[in-house]
Each structure stands twice: as C-alpha cells, then as structure tokens.
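User: Structure please.
Assistant: Input sequence and predicted structure:
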Amino acid sequence: MLSGGLVVTAHPLGPKAPKYVAGPDPDDRWVTAYRIEDLAGGGVLLYAPCLGAWTPELDDLLASADCALLDGTFFAPDEMGTAVRSRGGRQAAMGHLPVAGARGSLAALARHSGPRRIYTHLNNTNPLLDPDSDARARVSAAGVEVLPDGAEFVV
C-alpha cells in the first residue's frame, strides 16, 4: 500500500522483452499493467503502457476500472513503414498493438464503454497527435481520449 491509501498491483500481460535483453529469458512478465486502487474513494485506475496483444486478462482488468491509460504508440499496423520507410516488420517487432484495425486496441475497447479510456505513449509518427486528423476524429467518436501534454488528473 502507498501513502494516501493507494494499492498498486502488477498484472503480467505478456512476454515481450525489451530489445536490450540479450538472449532468451524465462520471465514472461515483461509486459505489465498496473491497477491502482484508491481505498478511500473507491476509484480504480488501470495503466497499461505497453501492449503487444490484447489479452483476456486485460479485458478482466478493464471490467473493474474507472479510468484506463492504454498504449497508443502506433495508430496503424504499418505506420512506421509508411512514415519513415523502415524495413518491414520493424514496428511489429517493437511489440505495440496498433490502435486501428480489426484486431487493434480501439476495436477491443469498444467492449468496455464503462471506464474513461485514454491513449498514452504516442509515437511521433502517430496521427493521433494531430487534433485535426481523421485518426483523432475516429478515436474521439469511439469515446476514447488523447490528452494534451501536461494534462493532470485531479481527484
């Protein structure tokens, strides 16, 4: 328990190790979401900054959350290839689930209209950074937010 009555629990969501880890690693808990519960107020914040795939565990965590900060690194599955002409597969190897697409996080978030949903950790190639983009309009229409830099949460 943290001061102020906050309880933080870590929830493993996948095995994608960072690139700097050399060789095979038996630890399958690299991708982790954090559930932060305010015992005094009863609110629950879910923070999932790196998602390589949508999992049933993530669905379970979202079911009890009041607010969720989720990985929005890339909007499209081929974003880095089209934006910086990288070699194919580089973006997928980074382990970030795209926002768009039938298997993207936005489609999965449609099953969870209860919590406030916010994308975080946006790459500089992500069109969600442009408030006037079609991508931002699509995400906003789905009820998911992209907050400006420096935004604060006040209880």
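The chain has five helices and six strands.
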